Amino acid sequence: MAEEHDIGGSTVRRLQVGAHLRALRRARGLSREQAGYEIRASESKISRMELGRVGFKERDIVDLLRLYGIDDRAEHDRMLTLTREANAPSWWHSYGDVLDTWFQNYLDLEQAAELIRTYEVQFVPGLLQTDAYARAVIRLGHGNAGADQIDRRAGLRMERKKVLQRSDAPRLWAVLDEAVLRRPIGGRAVLREQIVALIETCESANVRLQVVPFDSGGHAAAGGAFSILRFPHEELPDVVYIEHLTSALYLDKREEVDHYAAAIGRLFIEAQPPAETPKFLERILDDLDAGKI
What is d(CA 95, CA 111) in angstroms, rounded to the nearest whole number? Predict the structure, then answer.
C-alpha cells in the first residue's frame, strides 16, 4: 500500500477502526474502563483508540474483539486488515522532511474523501495548481527555503493532484473569489498558464468550478477559506478543514459542520453557474493579455 496512492490513508483507517471498536463496546454495554482492563490499559487509552488518535496493536484488537463477543472469523480478519492499514505509512511518508505535521492528517483525509467542497479567497486550490504556480505559492510561505526544498514541496503538491486522476477520484467542487484569478502569483506568465489549466479543468467530469465575481458584493463565506470533506464510510462524519499560517483546524462536530455546509451551499447559489466559468476565465486571460492585470 505504501507504493501506491491507496484510498484510505492511515488517519482514515484509524478513525474507521476506532469508530467500529466504540460501536462494539457500546453494543456490549461496557465502559471504557472495563475495556481497558481487558488489554491492560487505561480508560484514556481506550478513548484515544476509539477516536483514532493512536496506532493499534493487533494483540489489543484481538483481545477487544473477544471481549465484545465477536467470534466471526471474517470479522476478525477484516478488523486486523484495517488495523495493519492504519499502522502502515501513508504515501506521503517519504516527504516527511518538508511536510508540516499539522498538514499530514489532511493529506490522508483528502486521499480518502469522496467529495471535497472548498472555497478559496487567495490562491488556486492546491489540487488544481500548476507546478509553476505551486512553486510561487511555496516561495511566499517559505521565503528562506533553498531550491532543493522548493523542489520537494512542489513535488509533494504535484503528487497530491494525482488523486483526481484515479478511477475512483473524489468529486471536487471549488468556489474561487475573483481575487484569486487576478492576483499575479509568480508573475503574469505563471498566472496565465494557471488560468489556462483551470479552463481545461472545467472539462473534467469530477471537478466543478465556480467564481464569485467582484460585482456580487458580500457573500456567505466572507470569513475566509475552508474545505469540507465527505467520506464513503458511514461511520465517519464530514470534516471541515481550515488552514492557518502555522496550524490548521479540523472540525467534525455536527453543528459546526452544518454551519460551514450551509455557508458553502449559499456560495454555490451566489457564485456564477459552473457553465459560465470557462467564459469568465477567458475574460481574465483577455485582461492579462491587455496588461490590465
Answer: 15
pLDDT digits (tens, 9 = 90+) for 211-258: 999 987 666 656 689 999 999 887 788 999 999 888 899 999 999 999
* Residue of 168, 133, 138, 167 whose CA lies nearest to 150: 138
The radius of gyration computed from the CA coordinates of the chain, to the nearest angstrom, equals 22
* pLDDT at position 4: 39
What pLDDT digit, counting tens, does each position of 133-190 carry?
999 999 998 888 899 999 999 999 999 999 999 999 999 999 999 999 999 999 999 9
Distances in Å between the Cα of 240 and the Cα atoms of 4, 20, 95, 245, 260 are 26, 22, 24, 17, 7
171 contacts: CB under 8 Å, gap ≥ 6: 114, 115, 116, 206, 207, 208
User: Which of 63, 87, 111 lies at the terminal end of a domain, its last residue?
Assistant: 87
Q: How far is CA 34 from CA 26, 54, 62, 211, in A?
A: 11, 19, 16, 53
Residues 43-70: b if buried by 16+ CB within 10 A, e if exposed? eebbbbbbebeeebeeebbbbbbebbeb
- Structural domain ending residue among the three candidates 46, 61, 87: 87
Q: Are residues 63 and 203 in the same domain?
A: no
The model's pTM is 0.84
Residue-level pLDDT at 234: 77
Give me the helix-helix angle, 10-28 and 43-50, nearest 10°: 120
Which domain range does residue 187 map to?
100-289
Look at residue 177 and give its three-state secondary structure.
strand
